[in-house]
Amino acid sequence: MPEFELISPDGEDIEFVPADAAPGGYALLGAESFGAKTSFGDFYFYHYAGEGFSIWKSVYDIHRPARVIGRADQSVIELTSMFEGSFSIDWTGVTTGKLPLKQIELYHAPWIDNVAEFRGGRQYLTLDVHLTAPLLEPYAGEFPLLDRFLGDVAKGQPAKLFGGAQLATPRLNAVLKAMMEYQFKDSLAARYYDSYVHILLLLVLEQLSAPGSPTLFSATDIEKAHEARRLLTAEYHENYTIARLSRKLATNPYKLKTAFKHLFGVSIGKYKKHAFMEYARQLLLNTDNSIDEIAMLLGYNSQQNFTTAFRNHFGCTPGWMRRRK
Description:
Layout lengths: L4 E3 L6 E4 L14 E7 L2 E9 L3 E10 L3 E7 L3 E9 L3 E4 L3 E4 L4 E7 L2 E7 L3 E10 L1 H8 L3 H11 L4 E2 L5 E2 L2 H11 L8 H21 L9 H16 L7 H8 L3 H12 L3 H19 L4 H7 L5 H12 L3 H5 L3
C-alpha cells in the first residue's frame, strides 16, 4: 500500500488498486507498482527504493478535468521533472503554478500537502527522484548553494536549490530518459539506478554552477524554441536568419538563441546548417531534381554558393554525391 493518500476535494471516489500496465508501456523495471482508479481517470505509480534515494515514475490518464489532493506525513527532497503534459500544482509552502515540460527543480518540502489540477483528455508523465541529505552532503563542500540548501533542510524549512524551474540540459534530459527506459534484468536494476542517480546529481550541480546560472526559461520560451526548429526544417526555402525567426515568432533574439541552444545543445546556426545539408543529401540521392533546383529549394541564390556550402560540409561536391546513387 502507498504511504500517501489521494483525496478528491470535489468528493469523487479514489481507490488504490494493483497496477495494470500503463498505456504506452510506461512501467519502471525493477520497481513496485500500484494504481488508483477514479471516475475521471486512472493513475499508475512505479516506485523504486534505492540506497539514499527513491525513484517515482507516475502516469496520469485523465478523461476529464479534475483536482486531486496528495498528502503524506513526511518530508521529501525531490528532483521533479515533467515529461508529458503539464498540470498545475499548489504545494503548501513549497511551490505553486504550472509544472513546465522538460524543466527541473530540486526542492525540500517539510511535508506533502498539495493540490494538482488536471485538464481532461490528456495523459501526463512525471519522473521524480527523492534524495536524502546524507547522499547530498558529500557534494556540499564544492557547491555553496547546495550547502545553503542543506542548511534549510536541516532546519526543516521549505527550500529550492535553483529558486525556480530550470530547463534541463540535453545531457541531463538524456539521463532522466535513460532512467525511465531501463530495459535490462531486474536483478541489475539496483546498480543501474544507483549509477544514474549520481550522474544525474552531478549534471544538476554542473548546471547550478554554470556561468550565469540559474537561467530561467518560461514555457513560452520553450515553445518558441521548438517552433523555431520546426520552421527551420519545414520551410527550407525561407532560409531563416535568427532575426527573421525572432520577428516571425514575436520573441527576443537573445532569448530565442539561448533557449534553443540550452534545449537542443547546439546553436541555431549550426542546427540549420546541418539540417539543410542533410536535406540536400537526401534530395540528391532520392530525387531527380537538378542541383540548381535543389539550391533554389534551399534558398541559395546560386548553384555556386550551394556547391561551396555542400563541399565545406561533406568534403565533396553535390555532383559527386549524386553519382553515388
